[in-house]
């Protein structure tokens, strides 16, 4: 796809479907871009504002625009060591980290084959990998319910990890396939010729080349697991209480301040990861795998 | 293009195996088990015969059709709005996006935020005592909370759509920006130097360039919106509810006798999404082929 980069110098105007070939028009400047950027960021941030206000408010009733009374009561309750927050944070981090590691372990070799090779049935294989992302999670959750109970996986850490993997691994495979599509394996051959062991080739040649892709793939696997609600609810059977599960039951409790504080606790870890991954997401431009 | 045995001859298949083992068997098992149980084979509650009773009773139920209509509306509108707004967003910030790390971070800010949080945020933003309603009161537009239009728990699912579009338009934008960054400008400059107006460039150059990457992304948005559970659970009206919510309610019903119906619904939902996806991708391929000639 980069082969076309040099085609922007056209000397002889060939017959074109466009109007009169007149003076060249440049694309527009950045003035409008800045306004658009401010507007977009404002819209993205706006829904989060009431959650933050709520978390620091006491008796924040309509029509108060700002709370009559500010308070850290909700934060005290949410961050209390005997509350469920820390345990939920532990489950969420534990499950998501495990899912991420496993997704990368299976995603690197598969992404390499799908990205570097072309063979008959590749499209079908890619579609097969993608299918779990299309089918409603509820369908998977209730389809596996009884079987997971019978296998003793219901209500266990590994049961939840397994069902999250069905959704997280496809993202890792597809992102890494996109990365390997632009990868040149000849460097590995050179290193091997120079006497590097397979392990050293991976560590010093492959790894540095695909590192941005690994970060993006890992980031997606992590947030897919982190966001999961219904699969965790159903397969976790009320024992694996991750943050989303705790959040919904807290929201049903009706205390908007506590809910607000808990949403912020749930969002901060993944926002921190985004801060690390965002530049690489920009560069990897996910979705350009051409599936 | 090499032949299929290539994977075997080349010994590439062991590399694909771990991923396929993780993804396919459990997923296939879920589907097959749902099909079997939907056909009435449910030893746990003493059902051992095969029949299509569950499908018959589901298809004869008015709520099912209303839910199907609702979920289709949600999925189509979410995909449409996210795609249009996502592309607009990408075109708006493409010039300055790569240069500003802060903008890259902020424009993707809601990408990792779980839908549960997004849905709760919309309750407090758009609800009748939400931030917008309070702003309306502060500026004197409304007097009481009840005057604020119901956009949460409403029949048109506006709250659900707001959440889905808020999350997914930036997702489409990132996909579009990826394409615009790699191939976009050179083609557009050629068109510009040949005298194409900005509208012509958009219609004949930029949008066709975006289709191959944005179309699959919008399919994912469609499928996700159709299958989303927590968003309609937290933002939807109680009747009719979106299909996934209905399926879950049937599944967790104290009357175990309706379990086959829950399974039948799971099967129908999955088939509808897959059919819609294949149809859509075929359509996109046809449009692309037409555009090339």
Largest interface: A-B, 122 and 125 residues
- Mean pLDDT of chain B comes to 87
What fraction, in percent, of the residue positions of chain B are helical?
A: over 70%
Q: Oligomeric form of this entry? A: heterodimer
Show unreliable segments of chain B: none
The major sheet of chain A is characterized as:
2 strands, antiparallel
Query: How are strands sequenced across the largest beta sheet of chain A?
Result: 1-2
Count up the helices of chain A: 12
Which spans of chain A have pLDDT < 50 for at least 5 consecutive residues? 1-29, 287-291
Morphology of chain B? globular
Please report which band the strand proportion of chain B falls in: under 5%, 5-15%, 15-25%, 25-35%, 35-45% or over 45%.
under 5%
Number of strands of chain B: 0
Helix-and-strand structural type of chain B: mainly alpha
Defining traits:
heterodimer, A: 291 residues, mainly alpha, two-stranded antiparallel sheet, 12 helices, globular, disordered N terminus, disordered C terminus, B: 293 residues, 0% strand
How would you describe this structure to a colleague?
- The complex is a heterodimer of chains A (291) and B (293).
- Chain A has 291 residues and is mainly alpha-helical.
- Helix content of chain A is 68%, strand content 1%.
- Chain A has 12 helices and 2 strands; from the N terminus they run H-H-E-E-H-H-H-H-H-H-H-H-H-H.
- In chain A, helix 2 runs antiparallel to helix 12, helix 3 (73-79) packs across helix 12 and helix 5 (122-134) packs across helix 7.
- The radius of gyration of chain A is 25 Å and the shape is globular.
- The relative contact order of chain A is 0.14.
- Mean pLDDT of chain A is 85; it is low at 1-29 and 287-291.
- Chain B has 293 residues and is mainly alpha-helical.
- Helices cover 73% and strands 0% of the residues of chain B.
- The mean pLDDT of chain B is 87.
- At the A-B interface, helix 1, helix 2, helix 4, helix 5 and helix 6 of A face helix 2, helix 4, helix 5, helix 6 and helix 7 of B.
